[in-house]
Amino acid sequence: MSEDGPPLPAAAFYEPLDQDRFTSTTATAGPWSPGFQHAGPVSALVGRAFERHDPSPGTRVARVTVEILGPVPVAPLRAVVRTVRPGRRVSLLEGELLGEDGPIVRATAWRIAAAPGRLESTDHSPPPPPLPTTSRPIDRWPGMHADGYLAAMEWRPVEGSFNRPGPGAVWARARVPLVAGEADSPLVRALTLADSASGIGSQLDLAKWLIINTDLTVALHRDPVGEWIFMRARINADPGGSALAEARLADSSGGFGRALQTLLVDGLPAG
């Protein structure tokens, strides 16, 4: 993990309490409040639980959808997973993150058999730009909390920024592991970043608009390679409707997946 950048808020996003319970550290805090988590670590924690549930050699988690039932406090969480549809080649998993008062996050995942090695690779995404040689602090907006998740990630912007209208593109990696004492899996690395699509690609002024994603879907046609992940993101929004953030995910070898977020857009409260 990287030592570059601002002071680390914590040594990991989560500290394990036992097999399925975790303490949420200050590194999980999102940009809106130091008391509530960014959905990136939250999604990665449930993704980690999916990977560890009744593991089946020769299969992989290909799609994760996370439903965010409400603000996730920076507090202890318990991860539970069950198999909804068992199968040798295809299985559907369902998971929850539980807080003090019950479920805060619900999620599903499709775990499918890995494709044969003789399959020819096809990827229609344009190649990502080169990784910039230097990192850059995230541009702030009024009231932004930058000392949690945003500081726990290393950002190398290519286009746009968090406080200027998008679309945008960035290379990024986590500076700390998801769970203390563990190496992050490729799925965990992808999920830790993917929820940032609405910030990276926002064409809405975050100082004027409240933007809340109700969900996150990440579909991966292969596992990412290496620490650094490239994201190119954009938002589509309409009056009388809602907004949709979409992102292409890539690594140094090319594209490997997509992320989608359904977004509530509303005016910020007065004062």
UniProtKB/TrEMBL annotation:
Chain residue ranges for the region called Disordered: 117-139
Organism domain of life: Bacteria
Every Acyl-CoA thioesterase-like N-terminal HotDog domain range: 29-111
Domain Acyl-CoA thioesterase-like C-terminal intervals: 140-265
One Pfam family it belongs to: 4HBT_3C
Gene3D superfamilies: Acyl-CoA thioesterase, double hotdog domain
Signal peptide: none
InterPro entries hit by this protein: ACOT8-like_C (IPR049450), Acyl-CoA_hotdog (IPR042171), HotDog_dom_sf (IPR029069), TesB_ACOT8-like_N (IPR049449)
Protein name: Thioesterase family protein
Species, as recorded: Actinomadura vinacea
